[in-house]
């Protein structure tokens, strides 16, 4: 829920007119977009949606914080002018704002609230027959992942598009690199090493008049029930690319460690500041994940795939895409704005009627990260089946600014139980 960086960077069934004819170059029908979650990522996604098609308008917005919505609306209007058509009757504030956006006559919705709310919002949107752009991660616990998988199946039945916020899947250098890996350029894979080591995150100091719930919700990244911890909320990008390299093959189990070395103050909620997880696949293949959020340390954001014929390096921080060994190769093609490509392809799929559905892989990658968190929090080996069938549900079922937010102790490996 941060500010908007525009320079760079549920409901009646949707009506798709003439769904069997291609819309290439034809924009006679206006597609109305609803934004649910008006922070930085949501606002950025709305910006990209408005650029993705000549006949798209922003029709409705929803958030729990009026100041976030007002800032987002102001910035989007400055950039897109008349394509922003959000009147006073289509600005919705509150925990039920998502329902009002879905009931407002929109065709496409952007889901960009904190991840805890994603399964409920996605289910409502698909039930209403809306096309969806769904930010990652898609849940913070296994019950949420199962709910997302059900929604993804329903999206196929309803013939609506469901696109994930796993943006690297839409980056042309990554598509080329992982395409090579899957075509056998490095041979049989023996290991995939991936990192997401960064500095610290933003936080908002408490303001007079905020309730405990408002403070927690404004600083949602530091609370596992809202964000899933940083291995789920942020490092899931690298874990998703590991899964991509593995062709979507699921691990048998994982073991992990982690903790709080630096961010020990109550300011940082109950999340860890570092993780190290080993995913174990069939035939002894390993996936090694490392992530941390600690200031003044060496940063790393890469995926290295090692096989019997060589290794492939995908370095997100340095824009390196290269294969070494028997089949040397280096990406030298065009670069693209992956965030924009996501929305270009989403709206093209809606226009053509050839609907995209990222539901299965976005749910599986999210669970891979949750599985790693489970292993690190408990200190136990966690199997894929245990993770998928976990009954642990994080957070409350109802919300208000007067509620007492969940108080969860920092996990202690060997003491914290798996459920």
From TrEMBL:
Pfam families: GFO_IDH_MocA, GFO_IDH_MocA_C3. Residues 31-164 form the Gfo/Idh/MocA-like oxidoreductase N-terminal domain. This is Gfo/Idh/MocA family oxidoreductase. Residues 183-312 form the GFO/IDH/MocA-like oxidoreductase domain. GO terms for molecular function: nucleotide binding. InterPro entries: Gfo/Idh/MocA-like_OxRdtase_N (IPR000683), Gfo/Idh/MocA_oxidrdct_glycsds (IPR050463), GFO_IDH_MocA-like_dom (IPR055170), NAD(P)-bd_dom_sf (IPR036291). It comes from the Bacteria.
